[in-house]
Design a protein that fits this description.
The structure is a single chain. This protein has 5 helices and no strands. It is mostly helical. It has 3 domains: 3-78, no CATH class; 87-125; 127-164, no CATH class. The relative contact order is 0.03.
């Protein structure tokens, strides 16, 4: 593909232009543009497929097999992306079970959002100290017993102060 290997001037100019585009797309990390340029190049080269040597065809095949392998590895790696963790097990279920699971998750998220909005509204109002202390006492009473032995928790006071 390198333009310097080309004997015909018009073909050399075409390849130089293509190389400039490839370099720009590579620097911009624009995978879409790189793939489009590759398809453009492959389409042009397919016209000359009959004239290609077996060695060059073997090189193309090896390159394509390597690309397939890399894409398969990327696809597999997506399963381990933390972003997709909540839906990783969906493909293991049939369509109806997966849909129910998605709807259950959606309902839970809506419930959580509602409580966050309610909490934000409550916190935007002036709250008396007594209400805050009642909340803290209730919260502390629901903690696991192990938490009370936490080195950052000071239970010597009746105020249940957390020390830093």
């Amino acid at each position: 593909m390198h333009p310097d290997k080309e004997m015909m001037e018009d073909e050399k100019l075409r390849k130089e232009d293509l190389m400039k585009k490839v370099t720009a797309a590579y620097k911009a990390k624009d995978l879409s543009a790189l793939l489009k340029l590759e398809l453009e190049w492959v389409a042009e080269e397919t016209h000359n497929l009959a004239n290609l040597s077996d060695e060059k065809l073997a090189s193309y095949i090896a390159s394509l097999k390597e690309q397939v392998h890399e894409l398969q590895m990327e696809k597999t790696a997506q399963c381990y992306n933390p972003r997709y963790e909540p839906i990783n097990d969906l493909p293991l279920h049939n369509k109806h079970v997966a849909l129910k699971q998605i709807m259950r998750e959606e309902k839970g998220l809506h419930t959580h959002l509602s409580s966050l909005k309610r909490l934000a509204g409550d916190l935007s109002k002036p709250v008396p100290k007594k209400l805050i202390m009642e909340f803290v006492e209730e919260y502390v009473s629901q903690l696991e017993p192990d938490f009370l032995f936490d080195p950052f928790f000071d239970d010597d006071d009746d105020d249940f102060r957390i020390t830093y």
